[in-house]
Amino acid sequence: MLVADGWEQYKLIDCGEGEKVEDWNGFRLRRPDPQAIWPWTGPISIREDVHGHYHRSKQGGGEWEFKKRIPPSWTISYGSLKFRIEPTGFKHTGLFPEQAVNWDWMADKIRRADRPVRVLNLFAYTGGATCACLAAGASVCHVDASKGMVAWGKENVALSGLADKPVRFIVDDAVKFVQREIRRERFYDAIILDPPSYGRGPNGELWKLEDELFSLMDLLKDALSEEPLFLLLNSYTTGFSPQVAENMLRLTVNRRHPGRVTHGEVGLPVGKTGLVLPCGSFARWEK
Q1: Could you count the other beta carbons within 10 Å of the beta carbon of residue 55?
Q2: What's 50's DSSP letter?
Q3: Of 5, 58, 62, 92, which one has the fewest beta carbons inside 10 Å?
Q4: pLDDT tens digits, one per residue of 129-179
Q5: Is residue 92 part of a domain?
Q6: 92-104 average pLDDT score
Q7: How far is CA 21 from CA 63, 95, 271, in A?
């Protein structure tokens, strides 16, 4: 497992009984986490003394209970990168801190390439990977079906001082966009994707991971350049083994571009307990 232990302004303080307590640059939030099925490790004061607590509803969704004054949003830094944090109605904050291990890996690959690198970031959310790749010297095409997420991504790029870097922001269905790029013969040296389990495109296009992912991966092999650098597939889908993702890469991208395929999990250190909270899986293809 790759552990994102390089944060200074984020900490996973404690977790247990299906929840976690995090410090986001001075603001403590308590949120659900289905992986934390063990008992809490720390004193009750840690989970009670929080700024906000997200309560799930039996009818689905949930809502925040704010126990202390908290701004509508604030910023957090990871190295030179800066992101806006906001507690949303779906329990999320606009950032997945465990992805920092992938940001570091991608940035290192781009810098070591010592050449111009074109990156396609699909299902790009609020642009953590976009910022990391831009800061490493790549040009990035940032694609997401949500207009609001693309706007948030633009804001994070500006906060990180990268607004003058070569980046395109696209609101579109990922599959349709990639199909058009291939027809235009516009290819990419690196591709990042974090597809949802279920979703809809900007025009109502239906996406179900188990039905659509293999065909997308097969399509992406044709979107890579003649000298590709890497492809990173992330997943937060429960029950979706990282070995499945690696198998898909071997059957698609690796057949056209023979290279190295690996898979694993990402996680966060839990305070000083020595525990690690699993936070998702990945598969990587690299030249």
Answers
A1: 13
A2: -
A3: 58
A4: 999 999 999 999 999 999 999 999 999 999 999 999 999 999 999 999 999
A5: no
A6: 98
A7: 16, 15, 10
Where does 13-75 have alpha helices with state H? 44-48
Task: Return the ∠ at Cα 134 (arms to 128 and 138), rounded to 5°.
Answer: 130
Kindly report which listed range (88-92, 160-164, 188-192, 274-278) carries the lowest average pLDDT score: 88-92
Structure tokens given for 190: 């690196």
- The kind and range of the H/E element at 10 are strand 10-16
Same-domain pairing of 71 and 150: no
How confident is residue 197, by pLDDT bands cut at 50, 70 and 90? confident
Based on the domain organization, do 76 and 109 belong to the same domain?
Answer: no
Structure confidence at residue 58 (pLDDT): 79
Q: Identify the domain containing residue 15 by its residue range.
A: 6-85
Q: What is this structure's pTM?
A: 0.94
For residue 207, pLDDT beyond 70: no
What are the residues facing 206 on neighbouring strands?
A: 200
Report how many domains make up the chain. 2
Q: In this structure, are 154 and 62 located in the same domain?
A: no
The CATH number of residue 231's host domain is 3.40.50.150
Residues 43 and 185 in one domain: no
In a domain, 28, yes or no: yes
Give dist(CA 181, CA 3) in Å, integer: 35
Q: Among residues 63, 85, 107, which one ends one of the domains?
A: 85
Per-residue pLDDT, averaged over 193-220, amounts to: 79
Residues 78 and 105 placed together within one structural domain of the fold: no
Burial class (CB in 10 A: 0-12, 13-18, 19+), 62: middle
